[in-house]
Model the fold of this input.
Amino acid sequence: MINIGVLISGSGTNLQAIIDNIENNYIPANISVVISNRKNAFGLERAKNHNIDAVYFNRKNFETDIDFDVAIVSELQKRNIQLVVLAGYLNILTPLFVSNFRNRILNIHPALIPSFCGKGYYGLKVHEAVLEYGAKITGATVHFVDEGADTGAIILQESVNVLNNDTAEILQKRVLTIEHKLLPVAVKLFCENKLEFIECPDKRTIVKVLAD
Done:
C-alpha cells in the first residue's frame, strides 16, 4: 500500500477529502504523516482526529529554505513516503525537495493552469485575480510538482463558471468543491499506477491517464 505524506498550511479541507476517500476504500493508500509549516493550522487537528501523525516545522528554526526542506524530506524519508501531496501548502519547494521526490509530488491549484498561477497566486488572491481580469471560466488543476511554481505536468482539470454576482469568497467556495473532487481522483490514479509520463517532440512532458 502506498504511504502518503501530506503537506498543509491551513484548514486542511483537501486533506480531509483525501482522508475520507481512504477511509471509504476509494483510495488504496495510507496517510503516514501530515506536516504543516504553520503551528495553528487546523489541518493538524484533522490529522490527529484520524490518528494520523501530525508534525509542525517552524521555518524560523532553520537558516535557509534548503535547511528547512532537508528536515522535512528527512521526516518523509524515514517514514518511507512514496507520494507527497501538497494540500494547501503555501510554500514553494526547493529543488532539493523536488529532486528527492521527482514525479511523486502532487499539488492542487485553484485555477486552470496556465492561467492565474505561479509565484504570488495562492488562496483568495487567485480568485481576486480571476474576477479582476473578468474571466468567465476558472476551475481547479491537479499537477505534478517540478522546480517551478505551478509549472509541472497537468494531471486533471475541471472548469467552473464565473458568475456576475461572484465575490472572491463565493468563487473560492465553488472552486473548493471541485478541488475536493479532483484531488482524491488524482491520488487514486497515482496509487493505482495509472499515470504515464509522455515526452513530446517539443520537450514538453504531458501526463496520460491510463484506462482500466
